[in-house]
Amino acid sequence: MSTRNKEILKIRNLYVNFYTYAGVVKAINGVDLDVYEGEVISLVGETGCGKTVTSRAITRLIPPPGRIEKGEILFRKNSEWIDLLKLDENELRKIRGDEIAYIFQDPSSALDPLYTTGYQIAETMVVHDKADWDEAWKKAIELLRETMIPAPEERVKTYPHELSGGMKQRVVISIALSNDPKILIADEPTTNVDVTIQAELIDLLKELQKKKGTTIMLITHNMGLVAEIADRVAVMYAGNVVEIADIWTIFEEPLHPYTKGLLACVPDPLKKIERLEPIPGTIPNLIYPPPGCRFHPRCPKAMDICKKQRSPRVEIAPGHFVECWLFVSEEERKEAEKSG
Amino acid sequence: MAKPLIEVKDLKKYFPVRRFLLSKDYVKAVDGVTFTIYKGECLGVVGESGSGKTTLGRTILRLIEPTAGDIIYDGKSILKLKGEELKEFRRKAQMVFQDPFSSLDPRMTIFDIILEGPRIHNIDVGDPEEFVVKMLETVGLKREHIYRYPHEFSGGQKQRIAIARALAVNPEFIVLDEPTSALDVSVQASILNMLKDLQKKFGLTYMFISHDLAVVKYMSNRIATMYVGKFVEIANSDKMFEEPLHPYTMMLLDALPIPNPKITRAKKRKEIVGEPPSPIHLPPGCRFYPRCPYAMPICKAREPPLVEVEKDREVACWLYQ
Fold first, then answer.
1. Which CATH fold would you assign to the domain B4-99+172-320?
2. What is the pLDDT of residues B75-87, one digit of tens each?
3. Which residues of chain B have a CB within 8 Å of the CB of A263?
4. Mean pLDDT (whole number) for A7-18
5. How far apart are CA A31 and CA A36, in angstroms?
6. Is A230 exposed, middle or buried (0-12, 13-18, 19+ CB in 10 A)?
C-alpha cells in the first residue's frame, strides 16, 4: 500500500537524555522519522527502546530528569512548517490536545477520578476555545456515541471508577478525538485490556481513522496489532530507528537483523512452531551504550566496523530505510573505515 | 495414554463479599471445574482477566483452600493431607508466579532464595554453593550471580531465578501462572524455550496459565478455555486452533491479532457483544449466553455440562448435545 501523501510531521536528529543519579541515560540517539498525513504509522520495539519517549518528545512531554538535547520536530500547520521544539509553552499548549492528541497506556491514570467523564471530554474542547460548556457537553455525548459506548446520555454523568477498563479507554479516546486532531498518538492503547476488548478498540480506531482521516501513530510491542492496523512501521532499538518500511515489507522482507530477530521470537498461533528463536543477549544499558551500532553485541552478522561506527541510513527501495552496515556499499564502508 | 497426575473434581472456590450489614454475596471465582492433568503433559489454561485462572492454579496447589470439590494428586486427595505428607506435596508441586518483581524476597541473596526450599525439605544437596551454581546454570544464569540480590537483575533474569527456585526441590508438577506476561517478546521466547527444555529434561508436568493464546498454543499439549469460573472447552491445542467448538473459544480466537498482515487483514471479524458478567451475579443457565451469537432458549434455562463430544475433546455447550 502506498501512502505517499504529504508529510505532516518530520522528526529530525532527535536526541533525548535522562539525567539520573546513576548517570546520563542516552535514551534517544538521533531519531529521524517522517509521518505522512492520513497514515497509521507504528513504532515498535521492546521496553526501553525509546518509542514512548520519542512520541512524548513530539509535544515536549518529557518529564525531568529527561531533557531534549537537540533536534527538530517539524509540524505542518496550514502548509507552514513549525518547529515544536522552538515554540513557547503557551503556543505549544494550543497544539497539544488540539492538533496533536494522545491516548496513553493506562486509562485509569489518564482520567481524573473526581470529574465525570462528560466534564473531562467537554473540558478539552472548552480549554481550546472550540465550544462553550453547553455545546461541549452535547458534543461529549456524540463522541461517546461514536466510540460506541452504550447509553451515552447516561454515561456522560458517570465517574471513571464506574466504568470497566475497556470503557475507560473509550472515554480516553473520546477526549483525544474531541478536537478533531490531525495526529493521534496512541501509546500502547490496548496493553492492559483483554483480547476481546483489544479487538474492539482496534476496530474502533480503524473505523475512526477511515472516517476522519486522522493520522495515527501507534506505539506498541504487539506485532499482531501492527499487522492488523499499520500502514508503515518504524522499528526502534536502544534509542535508534533501525528500519522503516511499509507493513508488507516489514513482515515479508525485513532486512535489519534486529527486525528479523524480533519477528522470529513472536509466536504465531496459526503455525506449528517447534522452537522460537530468541535474540541472544540482553538490551544494553543506555548509560553506557555500546559504541558503533547499538545492536552489534547481539547481532549474528556483526562486522568490525559495526563496533566502531554507527551505520548511515540506507534507502534500499523507495520508502524502505535501514540503518545497518550490511546494506552499505563496500566502497562507502571502506571509506568510513578509513576516515573513522 | 499417560497416567493422570492430578484429577480435579467439581472444584469450587467462592470468596465472600459483604454487601450490606448482614447480607453476604459470593464471588464465584472457580465454580465447578472438573479436569485431569496427565503425567508429562502441559495443560494450558486460557481466559480473560477475572475468569478465575489464577485462583484455580492456586487452589489446586492448596495455596487457597477450596470451598467444595476434590483434588486428587497421584491417587490421593490433597485436601486431607497433613503434616509430613502435606510438606511432601508442597515439595512435589511448585508454582512460578506472574510478577518476578514481587515473588522474590528483596532482602535475600540468590544463594539463599534457591537454597531455602532444599533447607526446609531437608534435601541433601552436597556442597550448597556448587548446588546453587548448578541450578543457576540450568536456567541460563552464571556463577557470578550467586551472591547478588534480586534488584540487580532484569525481569527476565528474575523469572529465571524464580524457575530455579521451583526446580531446586526436585518437583514433579509446576503451575506456571503467566510466567512471561511481564516480559518482552525476545526475553519471553528464551524463557518459553527454556521451560520446554526443562520439562523434557526433568520429566515435569506443567499447568500453564496465560491470557496470551499464542503463548499457550506454543507451550501446551492440551488447552482449557475458562470463562467466569468454568471450563467451557478442553481440547488438543492444535485441534482447538483449527476448529474451536465453543462459541467463547471462537470469539477469543477471532479476536486474536495474528502477526501476519495478509492473514489478519483478510479475516472478517465478528462483532463482539458485551462484556463478561460479574462473578457475583451470574446469569441463569449458560453463563455465556448473553454474549453468544448461537444462543437458544435452552441456554437461558439450563447450564450445559462439560461433556466429551469427540475423542479428547470436551465442550460445555448445548450446540453439541
1. Rossmann fold (3.40.50)
2. 999 999 989 999 9
3. 259
4. 95
5. 16
6. buried
